[in-house]
Amino acid sequence: MKSKVVLDVIVEDEQWTENVDFDAVKVAEELKELAFGYVAEAVNNHELLALDKTYSVNVCLSNDEEVHRLNREFRGMDKPTNVLSFANIDDDEFWDELGDVDEAELGEIILAYETLEREAALKGISIYAHYCHLLVHGFLHLLGFDHQEDEEAEEMEGLETEILAAFSIENPYKEAEEA
Question: Is there a contact between 67 and 108 (Cβ–Cβ < 8 Å)?
Answer without folding.
Answer: no
